[in-house]
Amino acid sequence: MKLYRKFLALHLKNELEYKASFIINFITQSIVFFATYFVILSLFSKFGILKDYTIYQILLVYACIQFGFSINKIFNRGFDNFEVLIKNGELDRMLTRPRNIYVQILGSDIDYSRSTRTIQSIIILFIAIANLDIVWSFDKILTLIFMLISSCVIFFNIFLLGAAFCFVTIQGIEVKNVFTDGGREMAQYPMDIYKKEFRLFFTYIIPFGLVNYYPLHYIIGKSDNPLFIFLPLLVFVYTPICVLIFNKAMKKYTSTGS
Amino acid sequence: MKKLKPYFSYMKLRMICELQYRSAAIAGMGTQFFFGFIYIMLYLAFYNGAGSVEVSKIPIISLLAGPATTISLESMVTYLWLFQAFYYMVIIRQMDNELLDMIKNGNIAYEMCKPMNIYFTWLMKILSKKAIGTLLRFWPILLIAFFLPEPFKLALPNSPIHFILFIVSLVFALIIACILILFIHIITFYTLKDKGATSLVVTIGEIFTGGIVPIVFMPKALQVIAYLLPFRYVGDLPFRIYNGTLDISTSLINIGMQIIWIVLLGVISYKLMNKALKRVVVQGG
Fold this sequence. Notes:
The structure holds two protein chains of two kinds. The model of chain A has no long low-confidence stretch (mean pLDDT 87). Chain A is flat. In chain A, helix 3 packs antiparallel against helix 8 (115-131) and helix 9 runs parallel beside helix 15 (235-255). Chain A is mostly helical. Chain A contains 15 helices and no strands. Chain A starts with a helix and ends with a helix. By secondary structure, chain B is mainly α. Chain B is built from 13 helices and two strands. In chain B, helix 4 (73-85) crosses helix 8 (118-146). The mean pLDDT of chain B is 89. The chains are: A mainly alpha, B mainly alpha. The A-B interface holds A 21, 24-25, 27-28, 31-32, 35, 38-39, 42-43, 45-47, 49-51, 171, 173-175, 177-178, 181-182, 185-186, 189, 193-195, 198 and B 23-24, 27-28, 30-31, 34-35, 37-38, 41-42, 44-48, 53, 194, 196-197, 199-200, 203-204, 206-207, 212-213, 217-219, 222.
C-alpha cells in the first residue's frame, strides 16, 4: 500500500511539474506579446495621438510589418542566419548538390516556434480593424492584402541582401541587423513621422514607404488615389535586383576556390 | 586584500579576452545610432512641437519617483542617446554559454574543485565582459551625439553634482545588471531545460529597465510595478539623473535604493547558488 501511495505521489509530482512549466511558458508568451506592443501602447496612453494618426491606425500598419517580419523569421531563417551556413561549411556542401541553391538555403531551417509572433500580429490586426471606422470595400481589402504580401516580400529582399553582404565581410552581420531589426522598428510607424532625408531613403531605396505609408492612407481614407492600392506591389521589382546581387556575390565566393 | 588578488587577476584576464571583440563593438555602434535616430524622431512626432510634457506625481511612489515634473524634448533626446550609448551595459539578455554549459552538463564539478569562490568568479566574468564592452562602445556615440544639430543633440548634465551622482549611479547600475545576469544563470540551476522562467525574467526586465519608454511615460499601474522591481536602477535611474529630470535629494534616495538592491540581490542569489551547488555534491558529482 505504501508503495502505491508513493506511485501516486510520483505521478502527481510529474503532472504538476509539467503544469508548472506550461503555466510559466504561457505567462512568458503573454508577456512577450505585451512587450512587443508595449512601446506603442504606453506612448499612446501618454500622448494620445501620433502626428495625426490614432492608435488603431498605427496598430494596423504595426501589425502588417510584424506579420511580414515574422513570416520571414519562420521560413527565411536560412538567409537570416547565412553567416552560420558559410562558417560551418554547409553552404559549400549545398553548392555541390545538383539542386537549386535558393531552395536549399530556404529549406535549411524552418522555425515554426516563431509563429507566435505571426499569430499575435494577426490578432492585433483584427483588433485594429474592429476599432477603425472604415467602410471596407473591395479595393480597400485588396490594399490590405497587398500590404501584407509586400511586407513579407520587402523583408525577404532585405534578408537576401543581408546574406549577400555576408560574403563580403563577417562583420556585415551588424549592418544586416540595422536593416532587418532596425528596418522593422522603423517601418512599424508610417513613413511621414520621420525626417525628410530618412523618409526619402526609405521610400525609394529601401521602399518601406510603399508598404507602410501609401496603402495605409488609402485604407484609412486620407487619400483616394487608386494608384496607392498597387504601390506596395512595387517591392516585387526590387526582388530580382536583390537576387542578382546575391548571385553575383556567390559567384565571386565560389570563384575564390572554396 | 591578498585574498581578493586572484579575483582581480581573473578579471584582468577576462578583460583582455574581451578586447579581442573590438571590431564587433565598432560594427555594433552603427545599429545603436540608427535606433537612436529612429526613436528620437518617434518622440519628435509624439511631442509634435510641444517643448515639454507634464508628468504628474504618483503619491505611492513619490519618495522614489520625485514630485510632479516636466520632461522636455531635450531631456528625452538625451535620455535616448544615453540608452543607446550604454546599451551594452543595461541589457540583461546576455547569457554566457560557457557558464550555461557548465550548469547543464555538470562540468561545474571542475569549477568547484578550484580554490576560488564560484559566485564571485562568475560575477567577475560577467562584469569584465560588460565593462569592456560598454567602455568600447559608449564614448563614440556620446561624442557624436553631442555635436549633432538640434533637436538631435545630446545635452550636458544639469550640474556638476548631477554629473557626479550620474557616475555613481552608473557604477551601481553596472553592478546590479551583472548580479541580475548571474541571478538568471543561477535560476537555470533549478529550471534546467525549461527556458520559460529565465525568458520571463529577462522580458520583464527589458520593459522595466526603461529604454524606449522611460518609466515616467508608462501607465500609472505599470509605474508602480516598476518601482517595486530592481530593473529601473540599471538604466532608467542613471539616465534620469543625468538629464536633470530628477532633483538631487530624490537622486540620493534612489542611489541608496541601488545599494539596498545590490545587497538584497547579492545575498539571495549567493544563497540560491550555494543551495544548488550542495545538490550537485549530494548527487555525487
